[in-house]
Amino acid sequence: MKLTAELAAGGSHQVALARHARGGRVEIDGVVYEAALEGKPDGSLELTLDGRTHAAWVVTHGETAYVHAFGRAWTVTLRDPVRGTGTSASEADVCLAPMPGTVVELAVAVGDRVSTGQTMIVIESMKMQLNLEAARDGVVAELPFPKGAVFDRDAVLARLEARGD
């Protein structure tokens, strides 16, 4: 399976996945890694790449994966080049909660101009902090949850309107 992994912070990588009897093979931008993945009772994953084992946590929402591994956190959108992006303008207008959690920080305020990839909200869920970023340039029209508020999965955490340049 071939995918394009787009990082919310910018950049993209070509990824190819292949399974075999002992696990799998991951190719990232032409570099091949032997890989194995095992789920743990605490919800974490044990990721082994080229014989080195790492703890990882991954939560997915549609084509977006929220990944915590190697001491860092990433928001990654996986695109199947055969299917296309599937993102409409209305989907880019809202930032939905990928899972239930708590608002840790509002990095922007209503009326602020934001750029694609800019952190708008920091949330905590499953003992992980995630930066939720603007999917496009725009102006923050709504932030329904204040700092400390608890929300459910798919709650609208931010809404953008077109930039009025």
From TrEMBL:
The domain of life for this entry's organism is Bacteria
Gene3D superfamilies reported for this sequence: 2.40.50.100
SUPFAM superfamilies listed in its UniProt record: Single hybrid motif
Under InterPro entries, the record lists:
Biotin_Carboxyl_Carrier/Decarb (IPR050709), Biotin_lipoyl (IPR000089), MCC_alpha_BT (IPR048429), Single_hybrid_motif (IPR011053)
Which PROSITE patterns does this UniProt record tie to the protein? BIOTINYL_LIPOYL
A Pfam family of the record is Biotin_lipoyl
- Keyword terms: Biotin
- What is the protein name given in its UniProt record? Putative acyl-CoA carboxylase, Biotin/lipoyl carrier domain
Taxonomic source organism: Cupriavidus taiwanensis
